[in-house]
TrEMBL record:
Pfam families: YjbR. This is MmcQ/YjbR family DNA-binding protein. The lineage of its organism: Bacteria, Bacillati, Actinomycetota, Actinomycetes, Micromonosporales. It comes from Micromonospora profundi. It comes from the Bacteria. The keyword DNA-binding applies.
Amino acid sequence: MADADDVRRLALALPHVVEVDSAGFDFRVADKGFVWSYPERRPGKPRLIRTDVAVLFVGDEAEKQALLLGEPDLFFTAPGYEGLPLVLLRLPEVGVERLSELVTDAWRMRAPAALVADLDDPATLSG
């Protein structure tokens, strides 16, 4: 079971991540968002920032559909996210190890190639 604190810890452990001030959490690399709290839209009411749901960048529609169909207990989508390479993740349903993989994958897809190469080079990380 993961939560917003786990998202924050995992995201900030990645190179060159910036946390944007928000009512929930919002993390970017090279000015590109890769994981943030879900701004739930409710008819006739203000948006509700859900810190129990993370929006994750997944790269493309094929990956999005694979996650949605393969693990419907973890992933879902909502109106306004159609056609976008984003999935919604139920944090209480995911383990921290899997969350780490998902956050890191989202970071990899948004980070410039040089930063990804740094993350993949063990010598860079140890020295």
